[in-house]
């Protein structure tokens, strides 16, 4: 029905002859713990900062297991195998296939997974190129409920094979760590390399909310691949972390095409007025901002995912489970609770894509930036929808046009100056 690449689209040297990473100089033990689970990282690639991405993956997997009563996971780029271990123990996966192209990691991965199941009944380890493994799974009709591909850079060549190897209605957890490209710094740079155009089919220019654009580019790339196969994807959550930076999306792969032009279009930002909007495909060639007739005032990127970044009902389930597991109380778990709550707020369907940085409003208003909560309250009072952004701590999401944000910031500034003057006169009196 659909075509798969017969060989990886990027040259891949068999790990038997040349590992992707240089072989470890020694194999000393380096014990770690995460969410109370002990594991060893040896000389594998491991980042403690990625633990939130792992938490989100495990919560999603556990919710899937509860609703489907089955969970087979393929951890395609597993490093030391910490995710595989967590999927086995915390999400109670029935089976996990842990793969890393670097065969030098084998001992560390197996050692960690034995902690969950000494008899090796619920897991296996492989050392193949991810695309090759995913293709083999598809050819053998060995489909998985959740496929996690924790890749580097803007690697996307595995996407087609992953879509083929995941069960319908199953989950695909994808990653990009190429913040430089998604920030619009090299839209067409070397088309045959992994530019955004080659990797995700999107021409990305620098915009004030470039890290959200990075998420929309990653999801857009998956939308395109899914559509080729007659599928569509639904983002359950999208997560940006400045460590790396890392862009992640948990996608549910569903059968049936959806009209690709819906929620997959172009995003513009007007440097003149600061407003953003989406342009559908039939408006190509007619793009201009209603604020002016200045040619070149619009910065346009696309095609990108312009639909919702998250499913609020799925996030609410994740939050309830995180609370049930004691991950959201005071102490180390607090962060995940706050993150999920912000993501739920961001999912308000009235809110447009993008976020507005407080500094941009202050600079357009030519005043110092007010406290973010004062502006949110003022917007709320005027009936606008608002939320914080999980991507940028000093930014807001709102359906209020920039011109009114600027007016409100000026008003807030004036009232704070008047309050200061009153206080002074009371002190002086
Ligand atoms: C970001 S690290 C994985 C970290 C791990 N998932 C975690 O949460 O700690 C990416 C891993 O992918 C492996 N890798 C790189 N290219 C690969 C490929 N084409 N196929 C399979 N594994 C690959 C690397 O050896 C590396 O261990
Ligand atoms: Zn404009």
Concise description?
This is tRNA (guanine(26)-N(2))-dimethyltransferase. By secondary structure, the chain is of the alpha/beta class. 35% of the residues lie in helices and 20% in strands.
Strand order of the largest sheet: 5-4-3-6-7-9-8
Beta-strand share of residues: 15-25%
What characteristic shape results from the CA principal axes? globular
What is the H-and-E element order?
EEHEHEHEHEHEHHHEEEEEHHEHHEEH
Fold and architecture overview:
The chain has 429 residues and is of the alpha/beta class. It has a domain at 358-429: N2,N2-dimethylguanosine tRNA methyltransferase, C-terminal domain (Phenylalanyl-tRNA Synthetase, Chain B, domain 1). The protein is built from 13 helices and 15 strands. It has helices at residues 51-68, 82-89, 106-114, 130-139, 159-165, 179-182, 196-200, 210-228, 312-324, 334-346, 358-365, 372-381, 402-428, and strands at residues 31-34, 37-40, 72-75, 95-99, 123-126, 144-148, 166-176, 231-241, 246-255, 264-270, 276-279, 298-305, 356-357, 386-388, 395-398. Strands 5-4-3-6-7-9-8 form a seven-stranded mixed sheet, with helices on both faces. It has a three-stranded antiparallel sheet with strand order 11-10-12. It has a three-stranded antiparallel sheet with strand order 13-15-14. Strand 3, helix 2 (82-89) and strand 4 form a beta-alpha-beta unit. The N and C termini lie far apart (85 Å). It binds S-adenosylmethionine (SAM) and zinc ion. Residues 270, 272-273, 275, 289, 291-292, 297 line the site of zinc ion.
């Amino acid at each position: 029905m659909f075509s798969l690449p017969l060989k990886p689209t990027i040259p891949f040297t068999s790990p038997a002859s040349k590992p992707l990473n240089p072989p470890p100089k020694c194999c000393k033990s380096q014990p770690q713990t995460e969410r109370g689970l002990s594991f060893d990282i040896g000389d594998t690639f491991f980042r403690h900062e990625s633990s939130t991405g792992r938490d989100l993956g495990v919560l999603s997997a556990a919710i899937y297991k509860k609703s489907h009563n089955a969970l087979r996971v393929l951890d395609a780029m597993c490093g030391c195998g910490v995710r595989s271990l967590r999927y086995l123990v915390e999400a109670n996966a029935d089976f996990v296939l842990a793969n890393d192209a670097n065969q030098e990691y084998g001992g560390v991965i197996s050692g960690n997974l034995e902690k969950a199941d000494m008899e090796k009944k619920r897991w296996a380890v492989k050392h193949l190129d991810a695309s090759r493994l995913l293709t083999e799974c598809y050819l053998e009709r060995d489909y998985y409920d959740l496929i996690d591909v924790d890749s580097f850079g803007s690697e996307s060549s595995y996407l087609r094979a992953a879509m083929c190897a995941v069960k319908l209605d199953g989950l695909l957890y994808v990653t990009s760590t190429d913040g430089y490209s998604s920030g619009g710094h090299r839209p067409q740079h070397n088309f045959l390399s992994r530019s955004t155009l080659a990797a995700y089919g999107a021409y990305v220019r620098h915009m004030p909310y470039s890290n959200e654009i990075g998420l929309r580019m990653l999801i857009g790339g998956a939308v395109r691949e899914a559509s080729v196969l007659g599928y569509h994807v639904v983002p359950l959550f999208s997560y940006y972390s400045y460590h790396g930076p890392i862009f992640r999306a948990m996608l549910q792969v569903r059968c049936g095409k959806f009209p690709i032009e819906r929620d997959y279009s172009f995003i513009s930002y007007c440097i003149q007025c600061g407003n953003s909007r989406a342009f559908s495909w039939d408006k190509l060639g007619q793009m201009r901002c209603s604020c002016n007739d200045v040619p070149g005032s619009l910065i346009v990127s696309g095609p990108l995912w312009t639909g919702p970044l998250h499913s609020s009902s799925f996030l609410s389930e994740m939050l309830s489970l995180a609370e049930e597991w004691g991950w959201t109380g005071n102490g180390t778990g607090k962060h995940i609770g706050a993150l999920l709550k912000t993501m739920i707020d961001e999912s308000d369907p009235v809110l447009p894509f993008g976020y507005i940085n407080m500094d941009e409003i202050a600079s357009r208003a030519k005043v110092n930036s007010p406290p973010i909560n004062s502006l949110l309250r003022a917007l709320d009072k005027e009936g606008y929808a608002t939320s914080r952004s999980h991507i940028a701590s000093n930014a807001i999401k709102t359906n209020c046009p920039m011109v009114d944000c600027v007016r409100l910031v000026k008003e807030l500034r004036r009232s704070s100056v008047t309050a200061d003057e009153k206080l002074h006169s009371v002190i002086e009196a």
